[in-house]
Write a structure and sequence with these properties.
The complex is a heterodimer of chains A (720) and B (298). With 720 residues, chain A is α/β, with parallel strands linked by helices. In chain A, 50% of the residues lie in helices and 9% in strands. Chain A contains 31 helices and 15 strands. Chain B is built from 10 helices and 13 strands. Chain B has a 9-stranded mixed β-sheet with strand order 7-1-2-8-9-10-11-12-13. In chain B, strands 3-6 form a two-stranded antiparallel sheet. In chain B, strands 4-5 form a two-stranded antiparallel sheet. Classes of the chains: A alpha/beta (720), B alpha/beta (298). Chains A and B meet through helix 27 and helix 29 of A and strand 1 and helix 3 of B.
Chain lengths: 720, 298
């Protein structure tokens, strides 16, 4: 037992004084100490109990907090002795958490180039948070012990799981006492009611199950808070049992309260509606109450996902439309008909595939059963065009990172060029899969998550951490960037080099080398070419189909470290401009210092000039039941359309036509171009302006200038 | 059979029910002061030149007598232009483009067919517009017939100034008519559009008696055809056809045609822009007709 001079850092003291060598157990012991001593508070506006994040460093693992902790001690030089102890005892654990030790030379060099990324953070997961509300910690402890008996030799792991239950019991007790304390000097009847609700909740919870919606919300918030406010998951389903037994005034009040909490903590993604394995519609009163709240409050968080399918009722689509018509950009609309098929290809049976939820921006998980939607990695596909043009070298840096597929000036046909391109793409897939598997192993070795291991099925049963092959499904997801740019580059090469013979390959390679300097004509020709993806032109879309289906099918063959297979997704989120900067000069007319690239599976901003029906048709040219991680398509609508009498019918028709043909997902932004331009000049007048970027909503004035340009350039699909 | 068009526009949501693809044909027998599709007037292919977009780079010079550089500025002499389109192929600024393309109806239909899945979910289809479809009567009928065979319903935007046989035949193919009535007063109509309205009104009544589906569209232009007596005549005109037309739609003047007029070398019409109060007072004056009155875009 090490004596500390100060009481500053409970987590570190708990961690260091835990006598185990098992990292997970040490972390759990740190959390227990934190639960005992950290600052807690009751928000009197919402009537919910939270942890003061400044003092309590609960997180997915506690790993990140070590750095923050060192920072914190910098402000307290008098506590130097404690810091020395902490540095000595904790630093060695953090040093293990280092991806570069797991990568081979080729992987490292590709990683440094930046067009392939993976394993950069711990990632999302959607455990069954509600298990604590639904069953209580007493039951969960019994479950942990029962599984301990079946898996001898894993006591440290099961101890850590028990400790994570202790955290809730300790917090529950403290919240109850704090509420009693508050009650002493409160007279406002509403506040008294809120405090009494907290007291009655923790009179029996979290040990025993919650009895109504108010109790379930209070306990759920405690769990989400401790876990780190990730994605709540299938909220309208798992909370419905509580919702339906609660008085309508009270449940609406607590729904409002938790929505405020979600908004304040910028919680990630929440899923509603959808179908069961027999295609029965799962929407309920709570689904509509949530859509009402979103329509009313226009918050951009949580990112709301609404699931549709063949039996979705018309009134649900109408409620979704009402929300979208406010311009809040929510919900994002997913198609069960495509997503469930994609998940079933991965071997997930319908009974589970129909329980999918979105997490993070737009990755797919099976709540409480999987660890797969954490965004393993991302690949900037257009880099394969560079490698093909430069025989394996990066156009941006000259580094040899691809395959030697031969001097492109010797290719006699587009087929030969395309063949070399697919070899480069396959090679990139191998490299990214290598990186992602190394990252998965690194995380399995070094990132424990006892709480999540209790709340994700399979972990307790196998005696394995949720990062370390514990969950039932351990698939992986690799996201694609710069797809439209890849297709447009290939289309230009096919048309202008091989079909029309307007330029020689040598000229194109030279122009790319020189960033189009001295090749003005070629630059304009390539940039203004009509052969751009998103315009329903078969010449281009057939290339899109070949590239995407090839990429997606190849990925599905690659096993993950976690015991599943990879599939692809596309949710560029706010990092599309960042990805654009990783690219050199491309034959689609992209100069090396430009970063305007597609922010979804749709067209390069400004390149889809034939309206939304053409864009949707183009995106249906490839098979959207292959990618298992969310294939986002952003549609931007003029506010005028949503305000017109035809708007609703038109939107529904577009959506239905896309979804009938197995498109995966649509987001819709309602905004006028003028509004955006004005917002750049007068941001103060447009603080309410929300745009969807990739799979995510944000305030337009808060996003970077380059991203703003991206949103503006994205074609405004106004009807004629 | 060939048709000359200047645009095939997809995702049109104001040219009839649902999501539609509109084929804008070249050539119009009327010469309305306020025309907002001036590039449709001539039956021939012509060049559209936006001087505001021209960067003066000079890449378009040297292929013909129509374009030259005088005192460092590009001068375009429309009278010498054969609309060969070479300049447009060289222009990076998209300041010049060819307006008008002649294609076989089967090629046009192929483009229209691309949005069949959207017609199905929205109850939309193809709209033939212009210009004036009756100027290319045989080709239009062939296109409508072929569309029908492909399960695509058709609508037609027309000024009504054409051969009765053409309209009768189109009606027999189940075409929905979006039929312009630009005024009832004969003399004013002549001034505003260049023709007397008699034939237009006769064709309308012929279509009504043939049982065609009809939506009346009324471009109302402040100071041109919106006086109290104009509206009163129009109201009576509608009342006489009450129950025989689906509804009547007011089309307020909009500015889109302004730049285009200049770009195709025509006089720019610059009336007072009607505000919402105009459209609503027009609507009030016409409601007494007993026909449902709508305002386009609202």
């Amino acid at each position: 037992m090490i004596e500390f001079k100060t009481k500053l850092e409970p987590f570190a003291r708990g961690f260091i004084n835990c006598e185990s060598d098992y990292f997970g157990k040490k972390c759990a012991a740190g959390w227990v100490q934190q639960a005992k001593e950290g600052n807690i508070k009751i928000n009197m506006r919402t009537g919910l109990c939270t942890i003061d994040n400044d003092s309590v460093l609960f997180n997915y693992t506690g790993l990140w907090c070590f750095d923050e902790l060192k920072d914190e001690f910098k402000d307290h030089p008098e506590d130097k002795e404690d810091l020395d102890i902490i540095a000595k005892e904790i630093e060695p654990w953090t040093q293990k958490h280092n991806l570069s030790r797991y990568l081979n030379d080729l992987e490292s060099r590709n990683y440094c180039e930046g067009h392939i990324t993976g394993g950069y953070w711990e990632g999302h997961a959607v455990p069954d948070f509600v298990d604590v509300c639904r069953y209580g910690t007493d039951y969960l402890r019994e479950k942990i012990e029962a599984n301990r008996a079946l898996n001898p030799g894993k006591d440290d792991f099961y101890d850590s799981c028990i400790l994570s239950m202790d955290v809730f019991d300790i917090l529950g007790e403290r919240y109850r006492n704090l509420a009693k304390e508050y009650l002493k000097n409160r007279t406002d009847p509403e506040e008294v009611e809120k405090l009494n609700t907290i007291i009655r909740t923790f009179d029996h919870a979290p040990q025993r199950p919650c009895r109504d919606f108010a109790e379930a919300v209070i306990v759920l918030v405690m769990v989400l808070c401790v876990d780190g406010n990730d994605s709540p998951g299938y909220f309208d389903q798992y909370m419905y049992d509580f919702w339906k037994v609660t008085d309508s005034d009270i449940r609406r009040k607590y729904l409002d309260a938790i929505w405020e909490y979600f908004h304040e903590t910028r919680i990630w993604n929440l899923t509603i509606a959808g179908s069961d394995e027999n295609w029965n519609d799962m929407s309920n009163d709570l689904t509509y109450a949530i859509l009402d709240i979103v329509t009313e409050k226009k918050y951009q968080t949580p990112n709301l996902t609404a699931r549709l399918h063949r039996n979705s009722p018309k009134k649900l689509i109408e409620a979704i439309y009402r929300s979208l018509a406010t311009g809040c950009g929510l919900p994002g609309i997913y198609n069960d008909e495509a997503v469930c098929v994609a998940l079933e290809r991965l071997g997930i049976p319908p009974v589970d595939s129909h329980r999918y939820v979105m997490n993070g921006c737009n990755q797919i998980d099976i709540q409480g059963k999987s660890h797969m939607g954490l965004e393993d990695g991302e690949v900037i596909m257009a880099k394969a065009v560079e490698f093909t043009l430069f025989n394996g070298e990066s156009g941006k840096t000259g580094n040899k990172l691809g395959l030697e597929t031969g001097d492109p000036t010797t290719f006699e046909s587009f087929d030969e060029f395309y063949d070399a391109f697919t070899k480069q793409m396959d090679y990139m897939i191998n490299v990214i899969v290598g990186i992602c598997n190394a990252a998965q192993k690194e995380q399995a070795d070094n990132i424990p998550g006892p709480l999540r291991s209790v709340l994700i099925e399979g972990c307790l049963e196998k005696g394995l951490e949720y990062k370390n092959r514990g969950p039932i499904y351990g698939h992986g997801q690799i996201l694609i960037q710069a797809f439209a740019e890849t297709v447009d580059s290939l289309a230009n090469i096919k048309k202008y080099v091989y079909d029309d013979k307007r330029y020689t390959m040598a000229e194109v390679v030279d122009a790319m080398h020189k960033d189009y300097v001295g090749y003005d004509e070629m630059y304009h020709t390539f940039k203004n070419s009509e052969m751009k993806f998103g315009n329903d032109i078969e010449y281009v879309d057939s290339i899109a189909r070949d590239v995407m289906d090839h990429f997606n099918s190849e990925l599905l063959k690659k096993p993950t470290y976690r015991g599943g297979f990879y599939s692809s997704g596309c949710s560029p989120f706010v990092n599309a401009p960042g990805a654009g900067r990783k690219l050199g000069t491309l034959p689609n007319g992209l100069k090396t210092d430009e970063c305007l690239i597609a922010d979804s599976i749709g067209a390069t901003p400004g390149c889809d000039t034939h309206g939304p029906t053409a864009l949707l048709n183009s995106c249906l040219s490839f098979d959207q039941t292959l990618p298992g991680s969310g294939f986002i398509l952003n549609l931007k609508f003029d506010r005028a359309i949503f305000n017109s009498s035809e708007g609703e019918e038109v939107f529904e028709s577009l959506l239905k036509s896309y979804f009938d043909r197995k498109g995966q997902m649509v987001t819709a932004t309602v905004v006028s171009r003028e509004e955006l331009l004005d917002a750049q000049i007068h941001p103060e007048d447009h603080r309410d302006l929300i745009v969807r970027v990739g799979g995510y909503c944000d305030y337009f004035v808060n996003i970077s200038k380059s991203l703003q340009e991206n949103v503006i350039a994205r074609t405004s699909h106004c009807g004629a | 059979m060939n048709l000359t068009y200047f645009n095939i526009q997809r995702f049109c949501i104001h040219d009839g029910p649902g999501i539609r693809t509109t084929v804008f044909l070249k050539g119009c027998p009327l010469n309305c002061l306020w025309c907002h599709n001036p590039e449709s007037k001539s039956r021939k292919t012509e060049m559209i030149y936006y001087t505001s977009k021209c960067t003066g780079c000079g890449r378009c010079i040297g292929f013909c007598d129509a374009r030259s550089i005088v005192d460092g500025h590009i001068v375009y002499d429309r009278s010498k232009c054969t609309a060969c389109g070479k300049c447009a192929g060289r222009c990076f600024a998209s300041a010049v483009r060819v307006c008008g393309k002649t294609e076989d109806t089967s090629d046009i239909l192929a483009e229209v067919k691309k949005d069949v899945p959207f017609y199905k979910t929205s109850g939309g289809g193809m709209t033939v517009s212009g210009g004036e479809p009756s100027m290319q009567a045989d080709g239009v009928l062939e296109l409508i017939r072929a569309a029908k065979e492909s399960g695509i319903s058709s609508a037609m935007e027309t000024c009504g100034f054409g051969s009765p046989d053409f309209f009768r035949e189109a009606a027999a193919l189940g075409t929905l008519f979006l039929y312009d009535i630009k005024g009832v007063d004969r003399e004013k109509h002549k001034v505003n559009t260049g023709v007397y309205p008699d034939r237009i009104h006769e064709n309308l009544d012929m279509l009504i008696s043939a049982g065609a589906e009809i939506i009346i569209r009324m471009p109302l232009i402040p100071g041109k055809n919106d006086s109290e007596s104009d509206l009163s005549l129009l109201s009576d005109f509608l009342a006489a056809r009450k129950d025989l037309i689906r509804y009547a739609e007011i089309m307020p003047y909009h500015e889109l045609g302004r730049d285009k007029n200049a770009a195709v070398g025509r006089e720019v019409y610059d009336p007072i822009l009607p505000g919402k109060q105009f459209s609503h007072s027009w609507k009030d004056s016409l409601t007494g007709s007993g026909v449902e009155i709508r305002i386009s875009g609202e």
